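Notes continue from the previous slide.

Worked example: a multi-chain complex. Inputs as given:
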Amino acid sequence: MNIGILGAGMVGQTLAASLASLGHSVAVGTRNVSALMARTEPGPYGNPPYASWAREHPAVTTRTLAEAAAHGDIVFNVLAGGAALEGLRAAGAQNLAGKILVDVSNPLDFSKGFPPFLSVANTDSLGEQIQRAFPATKVVKALNTVNAMLMVDPRQLNGGDHSLFVCGNDEVARNEVVRLLGEWFGWSDVIELGDITNARGTEQLLPMWVRLYGRLQTPMFNFKIVR
Amino acid sequence: MNIGILGAGMVGQTLAASLASLGHSVAVGTRNVSALMARTEPGPYGNPPYASWAREHPAVTTRTLAEAAAHGDIVFNVLAGGAALEGLRAAGAQNLAGKILVDVSNPLDFSKGFPPFLSVANTDSLGEQIQRAFPATKVVKALNTVNAMLMVDPRQLNGGDHSLFVCGNDEVARNEVVRLLGEWFGWSDVIELGDITNARGTEQLLPMWVRLYGRLQTPMFNFKIVR
């Protein structure tokens, strides 16, 4: 499958490496390819600069946001929450039209320090904002409630016995994402919540997530819905 | 122990019955005792009117908010979120001073229908508002993320293998609440988050909780933090 990944940070790299290793044709999209490739300083988590990562993953191509979106039969939004709408506009509505956009982004605002607050919450959500801005795209919110390492390998934690949430207005698209999350990464407990307004629920898990991260001192945890 | 429970709804009744059955001296507080006792219509969940419940639980006394607060060595706030601050003012700061107030309330606003939104969220919380309004009281937010039946008997669900969260500014008070939740009700996985600003995290679980309730069609579920 051709897959476009909008965003070249840790989440984008982790998803791209995993999907490329499964044999998919993966394009990572970024605002300015040459600027990204020219960076020599380590990433925010001490990870190597993007160009080093790209050299180790030659099957993954690095392109503009518009090219990566056009490449994908399915597209992931892993842009930082505050940059997501602008980045998606740069990707281009025509390159996203008719496609599933898996929205992994969270509207975290770190401008007042840690823990961050949400730049949109409660009576709206980033997932809904994106769906409104791209009405011809099937936005499916998913994977935004777990660390990147768990996204692509949930069995690293407790044999995968924990939960993920999917929501979006298009039921067929939701079902397809649930199927792909199982097939690609091994997610076995994916709860389909319903339409994209449910993104208010999943994005508002983040204030709890960041506090638990502070408390547990590891991002290797997840919510399980015991029922 | 003398326990005051502010709020006579389903949560108050469930906590009062459980704590009285453990031998504690429990006073349920309500705005207007005679009005509550005179009610003959069933409760919002089809439960019997309060007076019927009270007759079946003769060990529990029904008093004004101020009397119930004065009675308690420890006090529970189980008032509806939108009525909590006013109810606590009626209970009286002097009757709550120096005591642990277990704040179970959630700022759910149903004025626009279901699912509700939060009347305070993201950059503040009801728990913080209550702590600011009653600085001499040790507010400990707890139990607000589960259904009343689970609050008092977590082992009804998956043998009790799911999580609860406690936060508050006073560490000794937090520890005491963790201890009591285990001793009284059998909670074994209680995560102490830290100060009362963590109520932003636990209250913002509610938008997810109400959506899961709609999806799962039962309130007998809970979050477990798998780690």
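Summary box: Chain B has a mean pLDDT of 97. The radius of gyration of chain B is 16 Å.
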